[in-house]
Amino acid sequence: MRSDVSLGIGDDAALLDVPAEHQLVTTTDVLIADVHFHSSATPHSIGHKALAVNLSDLAAMGATPAWATLGMIIPDIDERWLEKFCDGFFYLAKLYDIDLVGGDTARGPLMVAIQLMGWVPRGAALKRSGARSGDHIYITGTLGDAGLALMHLKGLRDLLPDQAATVRQRLDYPCPRVELGIQLRSLASAAIDVSDGFVADLRHLLRCSAVGAEIYLDELPISKVYQSLYGEIGWEPALTSGDDYELCFTAAPDRDDEISTLTELFDIPITRVGTVTIGSDIVFFDREGQQHSPKHTGYDHFGV
Amino acid sequence: MRSDVSLGIGDDAALLDVPAEHQLVTTTDVLIADVHFHSSATPHSIGHKALAVNLSDLAAMGATPAWATLGMIIPDIDERWLEKFCDGFFYLAKLYDIDLVGGDTARGPLMVAIQLMGWVPRGAALKRSGARSGDHIYITGTLGDAGLALMHLKGLRDLLPDQAATVRQRLDYPCPRVELGIQLRSLASAAIDVSDGFVADLRHLLRCSAVGAEIYLDELPISKVYQSLYGEIGWEPALTSGDDYELCFTAAPDRDDEISTLTELFDIPITRVGTVTIGSDIVFFDREGQQHSPKHTGYDHFGV
Q1: Residue A223 above 60 pLDDT?
Q2: Which of B102, B92, B94, B104 is nearest to B16 (CA)?
């Protein structure tokens, strides 16, 4: 047990010590079958992903994760299912030194609600607000692979077995960018994690910062699998499909060199994909300087 | 917005200030239809109860509530249902000056997951451990009315309309003992809230404190409605039915007078119902000194 957990599971509530001069950072995500994970997802991957998506939110704040609570509804007592879920959950929790400090379970249709807590030094959190005209826009990792995996699962896209395995890994086992987010505290002007789709999440960031953006389509970072399919699918999945759990952030142009060193440090691409502008629109350009409009802007659970 | 909320809903996570020299207290409860609320429960009462049961957990820690996150799964966009739920939730939140700092919604079978956070001065939290042999055992309010309401709803118990309305109020609109819990910080040796049933929750407290108890059945606090039915139902519902959300706590015998003043201060009965003993058993006595055994010890979601 972490030394900052005075009381964990087993009392009416947990008792936790936030370090002095730090702020508490807290996020919650609810995951249900068929919406947040495909019916073929393994319990192990569900355990991983439920924690990973919350870690991704903390990463986007530049926060250090510390404690989680877990609310679960499970259809019936299935010891093996639960054991595999826990294997996935606690493997990731251990990697990030996260203590489970509270929980509640009930019987019913499968649902996982995680609340993850962590901290940042007072005033150091990354927010969605803070991007300024002229700032560069960056994306970590690559976009669209989780979307490709979903298209494959739905029978909308044929993939070779190796390709399917690669993108399925991206869908089921997202890698939160926690350490990178912590490094970005002193570099980025604004940040958000890409969960609903790049354009949808970029819009959130731009709205909070009261700015617009131009995006260079040909700079969007895509995987080798995506590249091999690009001729058929174009930029659409990279722009609009969700579940990538990469970070989208902005930084002043003079921080570009420091950001390049992060690419080496973490061994993940960090790609400049655009520039913050005045106004509130997103304008898309291809390498010829032609302007484009994406058809959709991401996934909305209550959208039509 | 509270001044200690640096960032509320609308970013990747909330940013909160725990006061210096205080510890964070956090609890989570998952509520689903037909398990935690009857199918006839109104959305207003569900909103109230979902927050109240979490407040009750913080009350049992002696904590001051501050912030909540809300995860919801709702079957479909029903604006009126949601508005009434929010009316019930925010009415209680406003009473206790609680800010909603995070949320997540999805579409599916009705589920409400609340995480409530607050704080206590460092080292001042009430725990389940701490009861000592010779301590008195107290109960706030009365026991068993929520259980009577459930029996009535299930058609197992006839009640007059006034009686039904009274106990239904106890089931649907539990009153968390937050202020009382805060006062108990300096008085009680251990505390727990009565959610699963008096005996079941007392057992948790005793186990954490490594002690036993003797309980005086004829001292159990019951309402006028319960008293009128006592001849038919006996002590069973007061001992074993859940959903009362009263506090059960222990205190050294010399604190008895101070505890009596709390009864006047808060205008709720605080009744001594037993004594902490060495060992690990609970022994029940009636006024003649006869020993009794209750048939059941409370509700277990995965029990048989």
Answers
A1: yes
A2: B102
- What residues in A contact B129, CB-CB < 8 Å? 11
Type and span of the H or E element at B43: helix B43-61
> Left, alpha or beta for A164 (phi > 0: left; psi -120 to 50: alpha)?
alpha
Q: What is the DSSP letter of B62?
A: T
Any residues with CB less than 8 A from the CB of A144 and at least 6 apart, and which? A222, A223, A226, A237, A238, A239, A241, A244
- Chain B: give the shortest CA distance to residue A295, in Å: 24
User: In this structure, what token pair is assigned to residue A48?
Assistant: 């991983």
* Token pair 């007392």 in the structure block, residue: B202
What's the pLDDT tens digit per position in B183-238? 999 999 999 999 999 999 999 999 999 999 999 999 999 999 999 999 999 999 99
The burial of B149, by beta-carbon neighbours within 10 Å (0-12 exposed, 13-18 middle, 19 or more buried), is given as: buried
**B249 neighbors B193 (Cβ within 8 angstroms):** no
SS3 A33: strand
pLDDT, position B301: 40
- The encoded tokens of residue A245 equal 């759990």
Q: Which domains does chain B have, with CATH numbers?
A: 5-121 (3.30.1330.10), 136-292 (3.90.650.10)
Q: Identify from B5, B7, B11 which residue to disrupt to test chain A contact, counting A C-beta atoms within 10 A and taking the largest count.
A: B11
Length of chain A: 304
Residue A218 DSSP code: G
β-strand B5-7 against B14-16: which pairing, if any? Answer: antiparallel
A227-247 pLDDT, tens digit each: 999 999 999 999 999 999 999
Predicted confidence (pLDDT) per residue in A33-66, tens digit:
777 778 788 999 999 999 999 999 999 999 999 9
CB A126 within 8 A of CB A181: yes
Q: Which two tokens stand for residue A114?
A: 């995680």
C-beta separation of A69 from B115 below 8 A: yes
Positions of E strands within chain B:
5-7, 14-16, 22-32, 64-74, 99-107, 111-121, 136-140, 190-194, 212-216, 246-251, 270-277, 282-285, 291-292
Phi, psi of A279 (to 5 degrees): 95, -160
Q: Going by DSSP bridges, is the β-strand pair B246-251/B270-277 parallel, antiparallel, or unpaired?
A: unpaired
Q: In this structure, are residues B25 and B117 in contact, taking their beta carbons and an 8 Å threshold? A: yes
Length in residues, chain B: 304
CB contacts, 8 Å: A28 with chain B:
69-71, 102-104, 113, 115
Query: Cα–chain-centroid distance for residue B121?
Result: 22
Q: Nearest Cβ partner of A104 from B6, B30, B77?
A: B30
